[in-house]
Amino acid sequence: MNFKQNTHLFILNLGFILCFTQCSTNRYLKLDQSLLTKNSIIENGEKIKDQKVYELVKQKTNKKIWGFFPLYLNIYNLATNKKENHYLKKIGEAPVIFSSTLAEKSISQIKIYYKNIGYFDAEVRLNTMMKKHKIESEYNVETGLCYKINVFKLDKRINQSIDTRIFEILENTTIKSGQPYNLSRLEIERERISNLLQNEGYYKFNKEYLYFTADTNQKTKLIDLYLTVKALPSIDPNINEFKNHKTGIIKDIYVHLESPYLKVSQDTIFLDGIYFISNSQRLNFNRLAEKIFISSGKIFNKKNVDK
Hints:
- 29% of the residues lie in helices and 23% in strands.
- Strand 6 and strand 7 form a beta hairpin.
- The strands form 4 sheets. Strands 2-1-4-3 form a 4-stranded mixed β-sheet, with helices on one face. The chain has a 3-stranded mixed β-sheet with strand order 5-7-6, with helices on one face. A 3-stranded mixed β-sheet has the order 10-12-11.
- It is an alpha/beta fold and 307 residues long.
- The chain starts with a helix and ends with a helix.
């Protein structure tokens, strides 16, 4: 057997020994500390199994085998207190001590998750069940009603030519009236609009120039959703001036090629509308030119640049 197989066999045998010896799980706990043994999430009175929500809990319990036995914790507890680098501590797992601070962070993250999928009135509270030195955490979520989109439209607060194109793009939007509010869907829409515009010549545009504002009605649980386009800021930070987004035409294309093994001066070769600047003459510039999908005089297209 190799070392890895021997280690696994050792751990397995040790596990059986621990099952019978019932090694104490509170050996390294102080009087004011409790071992976290279970996390549960209850949504509107029913326990859920959605791992996306459980991942938001900041403290995970010690790993268990057969679904109930904390083998690696017990291995850790077999080590002597004095040696921090004890072999059993290295292959074992230190006890997960319940932290009220991390529990509060978990509550905050769970609440944000539900708000991001339309439950703006969601409330989360923590219940803990203690037995001796062990504690179980139960996160209770009351979602309330889900907010739905009433209208979705472009907010023309800034008069700029790009608004017309975005208005056309929104004719094929996946965001529709009657849908539950979902932040992830809005992020996807920002990416879609941004990519389309970058492929149509708006080379300075990105999704950070798009943002949503929501006007919510607590009585009807409806949202009026508006998409706003930011203008380009001035190059000079001292000037409070904004400019319209514009398309760009590719002028010159320069390809810089440098061999780290050659210290000779660089030469410029013009081929198929491309300037190749290189210190090596061994390269096949014709083959390189075939791999470049952008052309001088053409409108900027991010898809071609990425290719």
